[in-house]
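request received
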Amino acid sequence: MHSAPTIVAVSPVLVAAVAAGTAIALVAIWLMAVYNGLVTRRVRVQNGFSQIDVQLRRRHDLVPNLVATVKGYMQHERSTLEAVTSARAAAINARSAVSANPGDVGATLALANAEGVLQGLLGQMMILMERYPDLKANNNALQLQEELVSTENRIAFARQAYNDAVMTFNTKLAVFPDVLVARLFSFTAAALFEADQSARALPNVDFSAPASMEPPRNTHNS
Amino acid sequence: MDFFESQERAKRNTTWLVALFIMGVIATVVSVHVVLSLTVSQGKIFDPSMFALSVGSVLAVVGVGTAVKFAQMSHGGAAVAQAMGGTQVDPGSSDPDERRILNVVEEMAIASGVRVPPVYLMEDQTINAFAAGNSEQDSVIGVTRGCIHALSRDELQGVMAHEFSHIFHRDTRLNMRLVAWLGGIVAVSMVGRILIRSQMYSRPSRDKNNNAAIGLGIGVALFIIGIVGYFFGRIIQSAVSRQREFLADASAVQYTRNPDGIAGALEKIARGAGSQLSAPAAAEFSHFFFANGIASLFSTHPPIEERIARIRGAKMVEAGVTAVVTTTGPTGAATAGVIHPRATARPSSAAAFQGVSAASIHGARRSMGSLNPLDLGTAHGLIAGLPESVVDAARNPFSARAVICSLLLARDRRERQAQLAGIATADPALANATDALQQTATITPRQRLPVIELCAASLAQLSPAQYQQFRSVLTQLIASDSQVDRLEWTVRVILRGVIEGPTAGKDPNARATVADVALVVSVLAWSGATDEAGVARAWRAARGSEALLPAEQTAAQLCTLDALDESLQRLSNGKIGIKRKLVDACVACVAADGQTTVEEAELLRAVCASIGAPMPPIAAAA
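response:
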């Protein structure tokens, strides 16, 4: 044992030490709370993404059916249909890249862009379909079209929910004092699911030429 | 046991828990003081400033630790599931494994009259499951990937029945409290750990060696105190938890009349699939789980062999009772799926015109907060009888909103158009979807509550911003309708209870009184009877059940939607006793004339659902 120091001499130091220990503990508790909050919000982001993913898969399943159904009618839009098919293939690739590497910012952005292209082309295809009155009598095509529209709505809504979750998460990551905890445990910001503006300029679909080959009178009758 | 009795018992358990917690805190304060006195004050026990210091620091640490955990738990079951790293299974999923668990959960929820809880999936190959939540309204179910992959439908049903038992018996609520209280005591041991760490890493320098040694000593002591506190907490936890596990196992057998299901699941765990989770948060939430979530000295669950033996033992007794009830007999592996006594309750459009017998209303009251295979069959039939477009829509957050909106549309065509235009100003896509639904699908009165319950799991996926927007669309939609009829009341009442939850009111602290009970019962009396005499008869019946009710029913002009809303709001926050009085008075009132329509019965169920007292579907008279 050490030679006992007098009570008066030691107490204040150790009282301070205990008080400091308590303070450290409070900080640690706070640290854990912030950490847990970050984890929870990151899970919500993942949750949001899986919602989009389910609907994207549905869109990818619908597209070939729709293309096969309208192919016979839309002989002159071969280039559009091919563009849709290849955009779908590209979107599927991008999707599997994301599932192989969930949460990756680059992959998520690539998927958002690929889906943006697919969505744009599908929109064009729908507009072109209006020009073929025969298609309007085809129940199968109408039903597929309806399902595709409802899937588009669901994707848009799921994307909104996902982006809300991402914003909440990213804001929390950036705000003091949470930013310190986020840095400490190397949390990284999540990517918004949004096609960038350049991708919206759609690729080589020849809109005018083949479509105008179709007798315009027909379309007006519809 | 009666639903309300088991709720009361859960509440008493919570009180015990709090008492034990306070004792734990006092013990911690005393031991911290003793440690500090022996080390710092050199054995001077009665040092007031030292005592103040120990009380202050312990209370600060325990207080903050508890507060943090309480805040986390206040977000409901979803917070627990997310802390475990679970992601919500999409209610519209077409993956066969996911579909199976979703269907099982949907059927159970609808069979018991609670909203369909969101299902969270944890990517873990072992077999385990949990239920978490503060009330039926924020409960969630969690399952591991291994659980949905390895178990048959019967076994899954057994496990889910076990989890629903935890929800009905309020074990989940108790568990949430337990996490919060234990969080505070655990925090003390964390201080100890930090002190030890800081002393070990600090450079030994000159005279400080002495202080460092004492600091290290304090650290070790605090660590031990915390561990002891935690140990006591675990004793409380297992004392509460183990008994509840046996009860839940027994309930699972009772709900499904199929001991093979739950026993089979336990046997698969015992045979090597295991139940230990890799999620770091597993220890904290171990008492939530179906089977032991962690390997530890403080087992929260009884030994698996004992549980199997008890279930298998119960089989003999159960078999005698169930022979009358089940139509399919013992369900083995060969009979895939649930028992389907379809003949008992096939929903059809004709059901709307059939009455409901007083006996079946009383029957539903008795089986409140429990399940039976007949109800499971009814639920299965109810879902199967729904238009496909409605089921599909209800399982997606975007279109589930449209389903709810379409239920609120007026019957008058022009008014309906105005309502749709109102929705369109806020959200054109929603208006289109609502319009498409109301043109293609009809939902009978009997299907209303199940449909809204189905939508609940999807609506749980809305982001807070989307939820707010949806709320304002709903508010506008309800306000735009001039006429109020019983159907609309039903929808409103269910929405309030099922979707908005118990905290939606203006003044959450207002106390429920007999006047509130009188108002709700009066609404039922006025809407159920065709003439004054009928109202008086219904009221007399209600008074026969609850003598405290005033001699006369509340005047019809006072029975407005807003008044009903506010009363139900207060009642849903009210004590268990007043809820029970309300439910019994309502049952007596509705069953009084023996001429109950399906719509009346559904309004009764809606009232029950909105105060968190789920009532199973009431069979229509053949």
